[in-house]
Amino acid sequence: MSKIAYVQCPTGIAGDMFLGALVDGGVPLKYLIDRLQTLNLGDEYSLTAEEVQRQGQRATKVNVNLNQTSHHHHRHLPDIETIITQANLPETVTKNSLAIFRQLAIAEGNVHGIPSEKVHFHEVGATDALIDIIGTCIGLDYLNIDTLECSPLPTGGGTVKAAHGRLSVPVPAVLELCQMGKVPLYSNDIEKELVTPTGAAIVTTLAQKFGQPPTMKLTKVGLGAGNQDLTMPNILRLWIGEKEETTEEETVAVLETQIDDLSPQIFGYVMDELLQLGARDVFTQPVAMKKNRPGVLLTVICDVEKVGECERCIFEETSTLGIRKQIQTRSVLSRHLETVNTKYGEVRVKVARMGEKVVNIQPEYDDCVLIAKRLQIPLSEVMLETKRGINNGQ
């Protein structure tokens, strides 16, 4: 089994909330303090944790207390990279911390129209943001999290004071990060800044997926408190558990429309066009429609980002006036291609696995067709010979 964590953000996410959830979930505060000392920033801050209440619910609040006598640092990306690479941090922590700050630099650069290396970080380059981001990476490494997933993020609203004056919420850097990470957003009707650039940078860099909670065996829930008292408990919940290495999950879009006034000849062309656009699968079924008319149900399975192109093709090439669509999660086996030697030559085979177990091996149809045509022999014989080669190879 592998370890998986799911970040549930009903009131948004900030770096200190994530840190609080990690400490609450089992990362010793002293371990964080000791690891962070290698950054050589000890004269700028102290790190404390406390148990707090948010709307009657308990959570852990981690505080990065800045020393008042310390200069408030505004750093560029190369400054931050030097701090991280010169520290004695685990390799995964170094890699993830650099990736988060580089993602943030790209987003800030896009907002201001300058190269990422020339971005002058303000709030996110300050000491507390460094501790939040690097501390989060240290905590995830301590818990041996293999996979991180995240819920959709609430947009918040209103305005917030920043280094460049008052900004609309979500602030530009957060919107840019969410766009880069294709993050699903929604409104929870709370007109506050709920997602900070630091929090957005962490999850858009490290989360492998945004959506509903994954299938997992839950072993621990870490609760991290935010600074504000809101109309609902301002708590980030970190679900920690184990995930069996069985099938993989992916999100797809399913488009459907039934048509009763189109020449059957056109369906073949439309299906080919949709597959050329990148649809995963296209198929038709006969259906009985209103007024007892025979019709065809056209179904397209595609990646979410391909929905627009596939819909455009259907509308332009068919007579339909409406398309239904659903976003679904499907389980898939991991698979890869291998080559099998047969008396007719090499044939690729698709090997499907559930974890470490091989559950299915099938000859590649196109390879077998080419051999059958070239040698003028039955396709069934090529496929049978390929399966013999598979068995001999095992």
How would you describe what is shown here?
By secondary structure, the chain is of the alpha+beta class. It folds into 3 domains: 2-243, no CATH class; 248-331, Alpha-Beta Plaits (2-Layer Sandwich), CATH 3.30.70; 334-393, Ubiquitin-like (UB roll) (Roll), CATH 3.10.20.300. It contains 11 helices and 18 strands. The chain has helices at residues 15-24, 29-36, 77-86, 91-112, 127-142, 172-180, 197-206, 264-276, 307-317, 365-375, 379-393; strands at 2-8, 45-54, 57-66, 147-150, 153-154, 159-162, 165-168, 185-186, 209-210, 217-225, 235-243, 248-259, 281-288, 294-302, 324-332, 334-342, 345-354, 357-363. The chain has a 5-stranded mixed β-sheet with strand order 9-4-1-11-10. Strands 13-14-12-15 form a 4-stranded antiparallel β-sheet. A 3-stranded antiparallel β-sheet has the order 16-17-18. Strand 16 and strand 17 (345-354) form a beta hairpin. Helix 3 runs antiparallel to helix 4, helix 8 (264-276) runs antiparallel to helix 9 and helix 10 packs across helix 11 (379-393). The longest helix has 22 residues, at 91-112. The protein is globular. The model has no long low-confidence stretch (mean pLDDT 91). Pfam families: Ni_insertion (PF01969). InterPro entries: Ni_insertion (IPR002822).
